[in-house]
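So, is this right?
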Amino acid sequence: MSFRLLSLLCLVIAASYGDALSIEPRSSHYVKLPVVHSTNRRVFAKVYENKRDVATVPLAKRADVAYYAKLNIGTPPQPVYVQIDTGSFELWVNPNCTSLQGTTDVRFCRAIGHYEPSSSSSAVELTTTKTLRYGIGQAAIQYVIDNVGLAGTDALLENIQFGVALDTVDEFSGILGIGHGVNVTIPYKNMIDQLADQGATDTKAFSLALGSKSEQEGVIIFGGLDTSKFTGTLRTQPIIEGPDGVPRYWIQMESLGITPPDSQTKQYSNTSMAVFLDSGATLTLLPTSLANEIAADFGAEATNPNGFYAVDCKFNNQSGTLSFAFDGVTIRVPYREIVREIQTAFGTQCYLGISPSEDFALLGDTMLRSAYAVFDQTNNAIHLAQYSNCGSTEKEITAQMDLGKITGNCEAPDFEDADASSNPMPPGKGSGTGSNESGDAESRASTWKTAGFRKWFTIWVMIYAIDFTFGLIL
C-alpha cells in the first residue's frame, strides 16, 4: 500500500476513534480501571499461543483463576499487571516465575510485566521486609517507595509504599490488595488510603464489576460507580466483625437457595451466616455440610482427591440459578457462572465453583461475577445489586451521596436463557427495575467496538482496493 493511502487510512481511523484510544483526563474525583480475566486472549495473547497446552497442575494453583488491572510503576513508567484482591491489604509485584509448574502458568507469570527499582529515578528502596501469606501461596517482599500510575488514566499517585518480591511460592502475579489499610491492618497507607489522601477520590469507596465468564472483563472504579452495570437499587449491607477477627469485607448473608430449570426454588437450611467478599479467590467457600448439599443437587456425591466437586458440563447450558440473599437484595448466580471448565489431556472437565471449608464462608469470583458491589470504607458498608451490563454511565461517589438509594439503568438479566448471564432482558420481555430507555442508549453506545471494527475494516478494504487498482494502472 502506498504511503499516501496508508496515511489517509490512519487519519480516517484516528478521526473516528481517537477519543476511544486516548487517555481521557479526569473531570471528577474517581479513577476507572479495566479489569480483565487471565484467560482474556486479547490482553494476554502470547500466553495462549500454544492451543495444545492443558492443565498440568492442581486446579487451585493455576493461573486462569483471577482478575487483573494494569499499573504503571516508576519513572519512566514500567507496566505491570496485578491481581485485584478485596481480601488482602497490600500491593506487591514481581512473582518468582521459575518456581511454577505448567508451561502456561510460567508464560502468564512472565507476561504480566516486571518492575525494576534500579530503572526508576523516583524509586526509594527501604530495608524493611515482610512475608505475606495467602490462602494459597506466599510472597517474601522488600518495601519500596515509588510513583504509581493507573493505566489508561491521568492519575499518578506519588510516593506509594509497596512490596517487591524477593521470592514467592505458588504466585502467578503481584497482588493489589484493596482491603482496609492504615491503622487497621497495616501501619502505612495502602492504595485506597492514598487515592483519597492525594485527591484522586473523594471517599474511600470503590465499585467492582468483574463481568461474566463470557465477557472476560469488567471494571473497577475508585471513588465512583457505574449505573449501567447493575439492575435495581443498591442495598446497603453493614460491614460486620467476622469470625476470624480480621477486618475484612464481612457482611451478613440471610439465606441461600437453588432454582433448577423449570422448577421451584429450594431453600437450604441454616444458611444465615457471616460471609466476606473476596475478589482474589476463584471459588466460593461454604461450610462442608452446605457445600455437600449443593454439590448433590449438581450430581456430585463427594469431592475428588484434590477437594473439588466434579460435575457434568451440561450445567453450563442450563438456565438454573443459585440465589444468595442479603438484606433487601438477592443475587442470582446462573449455573454457567458457578461451574468451572478446565481443558485437560482428557478433554473438557467441569467442577463446581464451590468448595467445602470449616474455617469461614467466603464469596469468591464464582459468585461475585453476578453481583455489582460498592465497597465503602468511609461508611463501613458494602452496597449490593444484581450485575447486569447495559453500557456505561459513570458517577462520582461523594461524601454526601446516599449509595443505598442509587438505582441502576439496566433491566434484570434473562435468567430463563442459559446464555444470558449478564446481558439484560430485551425490551418488552419481563419487568425490569431500571430505565429501559437509558439502558438501551447506553447499550448502543457500548457496542462501538464491534460496529467500529466493521466500519474501519470496510474503509481499509476500500482503500486497499483503490491502491491495488492504481498500482495496476501505474
